[in-house]
Amino acid sequence: MSFKQELEKRVSRINDIISGYLPREEGYYKTVLEAMNYSITAGGKRIRPMLMLETFCLFNGRDYKVLYPFMAAIEMIHTYSLVHDDLPAMDNDDYRRGRKTTHKVYGEAMAILAGDGLLTLAFETAAGAYEKVDGDPETALIVYKRILRAYRILAEKAGVHGMVGGQVIDIEFVGKKITKDRLDRMYLLKTGALIEASMVIGAILAGASDEDIDVVRDIAINVGLAFQIRDDILDVTSSDEVLGKPTHSDEKNDKPTYVSIMDIDRAAKEVEAVTGRAVKAYESLPYKNDFLIDLIMYLINRER
Q1: Cβ-contact 210, 159 below 8 angstroms
Q2: I want to staple 255 with a disulfide (CB 3.0 to 4.6 A). Which of 16, 209, 250, 259 is the partner?
Q3: Residue 227 and residue 244: Cα distance in Å, rounded?
Q4: 3-state per-residue secondary structure call for 34-58
């Protein structure tokens, strides 16, 4: 089976997992539930839950029942961030993943509430992992501790010391000059934080050692940075039809990006250098998951 076929198979599996945690569209407030489901079922590569799953498999994780709630939760958090990112007060985008953004369909107020709903549902969903633990008391206690550690990572990387903090830097530097160091920091938080959370949580729930978790964190940090620089390049070189969202959006919004502080060729070389660090860290691990490294290379070299 080709990588593309394997990828499609995994995306389909992840979509099935996520769908099991989505809210039923009923009751007096069903409009916001519809908006939430509209947002999360819009498609996408499911990169974060996939990285979580494949890192879990890298360390021979077995308790998938505990992993699945976190996979759904990370995608809910990512989706909420996109819903809010598309709002007029942020990027003011009309299309996402090839169809109208949530605020264009449901209005700005409902889109804000849908994002809020997805964020809080994410933590409700992740907390449900505790209910999936079974086995003898000693084993269950070990798993409970892993869940608590994973839950804290999820909260930290989604919050002000993670993705939200990166968004703050992004907003504050619109139309302003930015140094490469600060831009890197913004990307490590804005994009890299959820990628880091995904891979680290996968390792934690699989029972990886602290030393191996540190290596996974190093891989994820570099993958997140390379992924975002590649996104900057695609925003300039790709098309609306290929990306499924407006290109030249960063330039239109006068946002700080790699291609705003250097030319495309140099930005591409930065991607190569950062990718090299990620691959070197991966190769230092005593475990291997061929699909995981293929996935990382695909994400970094993608055309959409």
Answers
A1: no
A2: 250
A3: 17
A4: HHHHHHHCCCCCCHHHHHHHHHHHH
- Threshold 0.85, pTM exceeds: yes
* pLDDT the model gives residue 241: 57
Vertex 57 angle, CA 56 and 58, to 5°: 90
Cα dihedral 289→42→221→169 (10° resolution): 180
Run of H or E including 96: strand 95-96
Per-residue burial over 8-31, b if 16 or more Cβ lie within 10 Å, else e, is eebbeebbebbeebbbeeeeeeee
Per-residue pLDDT tens for 160-186? Answer: 999 999 999 999 998 888 999 999 999
- What is the identity of the amino acid at 89? A
User: Which CATH code fits 3-300?
Assistant: 1.10.600.10
d(CA 29, CA 33): 7
Q: What is the pLDDT of residue 207?
A: 97
For the chain, domain boundaries = 3-300
Assess contact for 230 and 222: CB atoms under 8 A. no
Distance CA 191, CA 77 (A): 12
- CA 291, CA 299: separation in Å to the nearest integer? 12
- Looking up tokens 């090299």 gives 276
- Residue 231 and residue 47: Cα distance in Å, rounded? 14
Residue ranges of the chain whose pLDDT lies below 50: 242
Question: Chain-centre distance of CA 242, in angstroms?
Answer: 20
